[in-house]
Design brief:
Structural class of chain A: mainly alpha
CATH architecture of the largest domain in chain A: Orthogonal Bundle
Largest sheet of chain A: 2 strands, antiparallel
Number of strands of chain B: 10
Bound molecules: adenosine-5'-diphosphate, magnesium ion
Strand order of the largest sheet of chain A: 1-2
CATH superfamily of the largest domain in chain A: MetI-like
Shape of chain B: globular
Number of helices of chain B: 10
Number of strands of chain A: 2
Largest interface: A-B, 21 and 28 residues
Shape of chain A: globular
Oligomer: heterodimer
């Protein structure tokens, strides 16, 4: 067989594989939407669960997921950005910094259930925060922290040094340069990282399993020390422990659709911002 | 009057002994060129005058640089005030990724100017002084990267003069520009010398001849010859200088 023929075959295989991944994604989305769309209506989105989650809606879980997202971001965004700034602009190249870098990479790859166990041991038990929004937010916060730190570092590193030089050249201090030049230039890259982590925080069930979520509550949470219903968790609950599967499974699919839409919405916004920034970048 | 007096300046960058004891006097309201082959330490010398070398973590500096009879390496010198007094224009135009207006307002703001009218006024004045106003007055709030290279470099000069420096350092400011942009930049430099003391590094010997009154020839970190520009070009004392300015340098 000659070279060109071989190449053609390899390319065809690659093309089929990449095409099938698109097909797979579309099938998945189609399947979830097909199964879940029929139950989605105004009541489903705005009502509380009724009759042991066989009727009514999933409103409290949507609210719970939103609360968890907000809580997660309150912890993770400032800490992540500050840590990223520190590592990108201030930390000297030495063993300690390398250790930090490696730890962050490792942390990014730790399975989410392990974060759940950690949250249970530290926030729920040791710090006596109980199974609550705050415990769940802290746990999810740690889960997404590496993503935000890495996004911040990458975005700041991509700011050319000539900008910093220009800033020092007019007499700016280090902090002024970091704040007005590095950070402001990098902000959209950082923002993209934050958006991606929001998607992640919204969708994960394992980290909130023992730290924040509950299958059923009366009404909405009134304080950060309350348990919450959350979309990924009720999906899990309805599928595995439902006693009336024929009524509850469709609700689980409906909740999946809502969760998917929330996550897709966030990641789409993230992708759009990233594309726009890439186009605007002129240096 | 002497504005900048360099006394036995020695600079090490890491293990490299880059500036090997330079003595030089730079006169007020004049243009002084620094010429010499690539790698001889021109940039390093220039960056000693506003202490940009401080940013290199393993830089070591000995000797004194007196500006208005004050050694800028004295421990009580505030380096940020120094850089306000000694502005800098870089080799490649490096405007901030901000609007034209913001590029100039930046230096004012970080030094505490808040009054919007005052900032407007200085932005206009600086752009006029940099011969750029007419070209950009209708697009002050557009991104500076939309400007041509030559315009960007004049914007960088406007940014430097906005904070009222007394000395302006330029490190091969025309090396990234086409001949027409270079020409307008050189005319600008000649105009600026009325109000500023200018030190310009250039690898273009003709440029040194066109814009400067004094020329220093550096070779391997040492000052080989320093004199009025026309003397350097017509009656160089040192053989190396003669070879360099006549383009017979190997
Ligand atoms: N950060 C640095 N660390 C070590 N050596 C450096 C550094 N920057 C420049 N040098 C060395 O210093 C010498 C002079 O550099 P430079 O001042 O940039 O020369 P020029 O501007 O005349 O081309 C060169 O040999 C260069 O390799
Ligand atoms: Mg140089």
């Amino acid at each position: 067989m000659d070279k060109i023929k071989k190449e053609k075959i390899v390319f065809t295989i690659i093309r089929i594989i990449s095409f099938s991944s698109v097909v797979f994604l579309l099938t998945l989305l189609g399947f979830i939407f097909y199964k879940g769309f029929s139950v989605i209506n105004w009541q489903f989105l705005t009502d509380i669960p009724r009759n042991g989650f066989t009727e009514g809606g999933i409103f409290p879980s949507i609210v719970g997921t939103v609360y968890l997202i907000i809580g997660t971001m309150i912890f993770a965004v400032p800490v992540g950005i500050l840590a990223g700034i520190y590592l990108a602009e201030y930390a000297k190249e030495n063993r300690f910094k390398n250790l930090l870098r490696v730890s962050i990479n490792v942390l990014a790859g730790v399975p989410s259930i392990v974060f759940g166990l950690f949250g249970l041991a530290i926030f729920v038990k040791r710090m006596h925060l109980g199974v609550s929004i705050i415990s769940g937010s802290l746990t999810l916060g740690i889960l997404v922290l590496p993503t935000i730190i890495q996004a911040t570092i990458e975005a700041i590193k991509s700011v050319p040094d000539t900008f910093r030089e220009a800033s020092y050249g007019v007499g700016a201090t280090k902090w002024q340069t970091v704040y007005h030049i590095s950070l402001k230039t990098a902000i959209s890259g950082i923002f993209t990282g934050i958006i991606i982590s929001i998607g992640r925080a919204a969708g994960e069930a394992a980290p909130i399993l023992f730290t924040a979520a509950t299958f059923y509550t009366r009404g909405l949470p009134t304080s950060i020390f309350d348990k919450v219903m959350a979309l990924p968790y009720i999906i899990y609950g309805l599928i595995t422990e439902g006693t009336f599967p024929d009524k509850q499974v469709p609700i689980a699919y409906g909740a999946s659709v809502v969760l998917l839409i929330i996550v897709l919405l966030f990641s789409t916004v993230g992708i759009i911002i990233r594309l726009r920034v890439r186009r605007r970048k002129s240096w | 009057m002497v504005k900048v007096e360099v006394k036995d300046l020695k600079v090490w960058l890491g293990k490299n002994f880059v500036i090997k004891g330079i003595n030089l006097e730079i006169l007020e309201n004049s243009v002084t060129s620094i010429i010499g082959p690539s790698g001889c330490g021109k940039s390093t010398f220039l960056r000693s005058i506003n202490r940009m070398n401080d940013l290199i973590s393993d830089a070591n500096i000995e000797g004194e640089i007196m500006i208005d009879d004050k050694n800028i390496y004295d421990p009580d010198v505030n380096v940020f005030d120094l850089r306000r007094k000694v502005g800098m224009v870089f080799q490649k135009p490096n405007p901030f990724p901000k609007s034209i207006y913001e590029n100039i307002a930046y230096g004012l703001k970080i030094h505490g100017t808040k009054d919007r009218n005052k900032i407007d006024e200085i932005v206009e004045k600086s752009l006029r002084d940099a011969n750029l106003w007419d070209e950009v007055k209708d697009k002050l709030f557009e991104n500076a990267f939309a400007l041509s290279g030559g315009q960007q470099q004049r914007l960088c000069i406007a940014r430097a003069i906005a904070i009222k420096p007394e000395v302006i350092l330029m490190d091969e400011p025309a090396s990234a520009l086409d001949p027409i942009a270079t020409n307008s930049l050189e005319r600008l430099i000649v105009e600026l010398r009325k109000n500023y003391t200018i030190v310009i590094v250039t690898h273009n010997i003709q440029q040194a001849a066109r814009v400067s009154e004094y020329t220093a020839f550096l070779y391997l970190g040492e000052l080989v010859e320093f004199n009025k520009t026309e003397k350097i070009f017509t009656m160089p004392k040192d053989k190396k200088t003669e070879e360099y300015v006549s383009g017979r340098f190997s």
